[in-house]
Each structure stands twice: as structure tokens, then as C-alpha cells.
Write a structure and sequence with these properties.
Rossmann fold; alpha/beta; globular; 10 helices; about 35% helix
């Protein structure tokens, strides 16, 4: 059964910043949380980002800073923006950027989705925001949502500028692209690797780019999807919180890199404080549980379960978002 999400979203047309989450900023008002669209270069690619500054922001003062990494197939105007805004309301400078090759950021071919790029995007957000007026370089935190959570774990393993790390509904992209969600595609690994290899060969020869996830599903087809994450995800990304820059697709050749990646490899390198948040009813929770168990390098770690929430519901349902933001704020206050 698919949950109806329409009550909490804004349409892109109604928001001058293109934000599609509920209670999004519609104008910058002095003394309130403000949003600042910015662009910067990362390895020659133009990155599009939004910086949120807290109420009564004074560039001469110093503020703790949080980098927010968006989900797979998502963009900065959706759930990543929601959490960036809510954290700014609690006194943080925050930044969330569209991944390289995705959203409003540059890079061709479009919708390349390689782990190395996503991890570098997180390092790049840190590079930029640490130079921002008012940013306290000694108080930099990281929040990764869904696929951005897995990549945040990987980034924080070696980037010690991040003093504390949090994830929300973490999704281990490599594990799922390799084995399928809940290990549902193990029998077809070699077949899919062959498809990815053939797709890369076709690209190299100047042929058409092949994509995964381009098919538009009917409501009846969505209802038959085997996992709630995918059923609710189609509704969130395709209907209630849709954004034209969030296509959900990725190049098939990306699977060559994705299927060799695992966010939990070298988890012992994380020695910073770690908070991992997941819904009790999330069918993706097994990935958070596995990563949390593998985080043996830190004794300051906590697994926080939001009772009753599914994976996608942590993106928008007010009572679940409120719980997550409260927990995140208390965590970063203590550990930044």
C-alpha cells in the first residue's frame, strides 16, 4: 500500500528557488534563515549548490557548519534541502549541492553515478563551505541521506575535517547495485556486469548512452513493486516531491564502478562521533545496521530508530522529520 504524500510538498512553480519540500523558504527575509544559490568549480565541473544561513546571520561571527549529501537520483531542492533548512533554523550554516553530472551541476554524459564522483562531491562541498564567511573551520559536520549517507560514510573515513558524521536512512549503493535490494538480484550479477561493460564499450565508440531507471511505470506497475522503499520512492520523486532535475536514472556503464563499491569497507577508519538514524519500518534498515556494526573505530556512536517510519517517510512526514532534526541537533551540539 502506497502512502499519500501530497500534503507536505510545494510545487517548483510556487517556489522561486525551485524548492519542493514543505515549509520551504520562499523569500529571503532579514533576520530569518536565508538561502543563497551558489556555484563553484570542482575538478573542472560547475557545481550548483544552496547555502543556508541561520537567522540574524553575521558574517563576522563564527558558526558551526554542516554539509548535507542528497540521496541517489535526488537533488538539493528535495529532502537534502529540507534538512539543510531545518538545521540552519537551529543555528548552523549548511550546504547541499547537486552531485557532479546530475541535477543543475555540470558534467557529461548526464546522470553518471559513480561512487568516486559522489565522494569527491562531498569533499568539494567541504572545500567550498570552509571558505564561506562565518564558517568555523573547526566545527564541520556531515549529514548524508539515503545514498548520500553511504557516500558520506566513505568520505568521512579519510577526510578528518569532518568532526562528526550522521546518516539518515542510509543506503549502501554499491551493495544494492551489486546484489539487488535485500539480495534479490545475486543470481544476475555477472549478466548485469556484462551489460554495463557493453554499455561502456558503446559509449567509448561514440554510440548512444544507455540508462538504467528511465522507464515510466503506471500506478498498477508501481503497486506491484516488491519493496516499499521503491513504491514510496516512485511516489515521492515522481509525484508529490518531483523536481525536473531529479530523473532517478543513471548511466548503465556506472554499474562497473558501483558494483565494486561498498560503503562499509574500511568503516573502522571512522574515529569521529557517529550517529545513524533509520525508521523502524524501513526495509532498508538492514544497511544501517550493517554499517553501524562495522564502525569499530569509534566508541562515540549511536543508532537512533524512529518508531513507525519507513525509509521515504523520514524524508517528509513532519512528526518523523521533527524527531530526526531534534536528534541531529542534539548530536551536532555535543559533537561539533
Amino acid at each position: 500500500m502506497t502512502t499519500t504524500l501530497s500534503v507536505s510538498a510545494q510545487t517548483k512553480m510556487s517556489n522561486p528557488f525551485g524548492l519542493v519540500y514543505g515549509d520551504a523558504i520562499k523569500e529571503n527575509i532579514p533576520g530569518k534563515v536565508n538561502i543563497h544559490p551558489v556555484t563553484y568549480k570542482l575538478n573542472g565541473i560547475d557545481i550548483a549548490a544552496n547555502v543556508y544561513t541561520p537567522a540574524n546571520y553575521d558574517k563576522k561571527k563564527k558558526y558551526p557548519v554542516i554539509v548535507v549529501a542528497h540521496p541517489n537520483g535526488g537533488v538539493k531542492e528535495q529532502v537534502a534541502g529540507l534538512y539543510a533548512q531545518r538545521l540552519a533554523e537551529n543555528g548552523y550554516i549548511t550546504i547541499t549541492a547537486d552531485a557532479s553530472y546530475q541535477g543543475a551541476s555540470g558534467g557529461k554524459p548526464r546522470n553518471v553515478d559513480k561512487p568516486a564522483n559522489r565522494i569527491e562531491d562531498i569533499h568539494g562541498m567541504a572545500d567550498f563551505i570552509m571558505q564561506y564567511a562565518g564558517a568555523d573551520k573547526d566545527r564541520l559536520g556531515l549529514l548524508g541521506i539515503c545514498g548520500g549517507g553511504g557516500y558520506s560514510l566513505a568520505a568521512a573515513q579519510t577526510d578528518k575535517r569532518f568532526k562528526s558524521i550522521a546518516t539518515l536512512s542510509m543506503f549502501n549503493s554499491g551493495l544494492v547495485r551489486r546484489n539487488g535490494f535485500m539480495n534479490s538480484q545475486i543470481s544476475t550479477i555477472q549478466q548485469r556486469l556484462k551489460q554495463a561493460s557493453d554499455a561502456r564499450a558503446k559509449e567509448a565508440a561514440g554510440g548512444e548512452i544507455q540508462y538504467v531507471g528511465s522507464t515510466q511505470l503506471t500506478d498498477a506497475e508501481v503497486a506491484k513493486l516488491p519493496f516499499e522503499l521503491y513504491r514510496q520512492g516512485v511516489e515521492y520523486y515522481g509525484k508529490t516531491h518531483a523536481h525536473p532535475n531529479a530523473s532517478g536514472r543513471y548511466t548503465m556503464s556506472s554499474l562497473i564502478d558501483l558494483m565494486a563499491f561498498d560503503a562499509t569497507t574500511n568503516m573502522n577508519l571512522i574515529d569521529q562521533p557517529l550517529l545513524m538514524i533509520a525508521g523502524s519500518k524501513a526495509d532498508s534498515k538492514y544497511m544501517t545496521d550493517s554499517a553501524f556494526k562495522a564502525a569499530t573505530g569509534t566508541t562515540n556512536k549511536e543508532l537512533f530508530i524512529i518508531e513507525g517510519a519507513t525509509h521515504i517517510e523520514t524524508y517528509w512526514v513532519p512528526k518523523y522529520v521533527d524527531q530526526a532534526v531534534h536528534k541531529l541537533t542534539s548530536f551536532f551540539v555535543k559533537n561539533l
